[in-house]
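Data availability excerpt. The first of two example chains:
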Amino acid sequence: MSWRSLCKALSLSLCLTLIFANAVGAQKVTAGQPCKITQQKVLYKGSTYTCIKNGKKLVWSKGIPTPKKSVPVPTATPTATPTATPTATPQAISDVPGRGPTGRFQYRFINGLMQRKNVDGVWRSDDSRPVSAFDQIRKAAFDSIRSAPNSTPNYSFIIRNNIAENYPSDLAGHIQNAIQDFNKLMSQYLTSNVNVDLILLTEKDDRFLREDLPRLLNYENYVFILDNLKSYATQESFYNRSGTGGGTAGFIHSENRGYYLGHTASFAKMETFWPEIAPHEMAHVLQFYLSRGYFSNCGEGQECSKYHGHSVEGSANTLGMAVAFPLLAWYSDEMDKILKDGIRAFKSQISVKNKDDAISLFRLIESRNTEMSQEFSYSAGQVLWEYFIGTYGFKKWIEFNSNIPKTANFGENLKFTVGIDKQGFYEAAAPYFLSVWERLAKEG
């Protein structure tokens, strides 16, 4: 049918609509590709794409199919009025994340853009939940950690790659990119350039383990990973151990050198990759750079200690989560997941029903001498330090770690940095922590 005959059958307004849609739809659009004008909508191949902000970038959202309008058919009766058949409203794309083979949320990167698979198997680079859906303390912590420097930092983490031959190359690339993302945000807090040895190996890299690793690290810095490497012998044992791999990191003050030792199975793939690990380990490099190297004046959990389990691992988790995931919603989902997993795993051993229970848990995770306190030093500790950062700002976290050499113990450092002692800090953080715990416990 020609355009002339088609316009005779349709109203003039419908013709103009079709012509306009074809003109806009002529632009090729791909989800995740850069765009220029925020909230611009483009019709392409029957789907509507929206220009959305993802982190600092403007990208096209996943296309939403545009329902077809029925066309009124002219009738021979002059008084007849054409009617349109009602169309179904498109179902919203789910924000609920799907889970991979080890129970973790799944991510991938397309042209450097992170995507997450939802419960329906759809890969998304956006999330429809409004900022108002999340607690203000959570939002404040996320925003404060991700605040970009006002100018180009003078110093940076200089990465020296030491990657064993069996480490999966695609995962190594994602780790290197994650470290650069961390570098962009955190180098503003450095007072000198910092060399960091990135060391990546698998259970198959025996020669690297025997010959190269001892040149990079002292034995006591990596002896505890040997059991992990043994557990990567089969997929079943790999999944049972972690299903993603792990790492350890620190800073050697006498050499002005940091290290990040990462390990995974030689057969690991993107479906087992967890983006939080790399920035979590780099957070340890930053922690101990600021405190002039890790040292233990006395054991965790004692009044004389400068470090506690939750301040080491919990705050590194908060920082790692915020750097790893560019959307507040995804950061929040990951924060919730790890604490919910802990609540389920130890529900027969611990209950948090009031403020005093929350404070007791904070004291418990000052040391990591049991399986439960080790677990909650990460998951409950991250919420405790999320409160700290969301309340006082990330720069106060930087100050707190920088003040470790200047103060006698953890409590004195808190008082020096934010004007409140340890008991006061725990009491102030308890209501927020309790609200998060109760919400997750109800979700089951």
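And the second chain:
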Amino acid sequence: MSADSKVAIVTGAGTGVGRATALALLRNGYRVVLAGRRGEMLTEVVSAAGPLAGQALAVPTDISDPASVKALFARAKEAFGRVDVLFNNAGANVPGVLLEDLTVEQWKKVVDTNLTGTFLCTQEAFRVMKDQTPRGGRIINNGSASAHSPRPNSAPYTATKHAITGLTKTTALDGRKYDIACGQVDIGNALTPMAARLAKGVLQANGTVMPEPLIDPEHVANAVVHMASLPLDANVLTLTIMATKMPFVGRG
């Protein structure tokens, strides 16, 4: 299928990497469903698409709620007829909390969004993709550099991102029989609202505080578009895109 007939769902599409990716997909001919908790931010992204806004649909969604996820995919099918790409991008964090001081509520907030929300969207994507014609599709998960190595005081975020790697591999395996491919993009220091604090200085493994370099989210968006553009018989299982000089290689 050509890009101009494909449909993509992007979660966490109101800001940061999700916003940049939704707009990049639109520029590359996709019809895009933008999902996120804050409807006004999704509407702003659609407006930013300019003449391509007619190819976009904003659907306020809580990905931790199964009913909300079902409604998201139902709206996508109703509007565009199918789903070819799912970018599981939405995420939450509680940075800088000592492990022993972390509350159960904080833990569950991150797990419910980063892991359970990704699973719920993946499950619904399977249900749609295996029954559509042409069959199949592609799921891309936002893993993060924390899927490989933690920052100090990051137990819930790092645990969920390590779990995303397992979910990615399982999805890639279980999706084969339905022509569903699954890959993961691991992002290091994209300049998003969640990561902006890194430029001011962040705790390092040796106890020092130092600023870290960041990259434009457009670079991540372009990588996701490349992954999405591959034919279904080819897959990028994992891709790491990061600030060249960030303290990731050798972290700890």
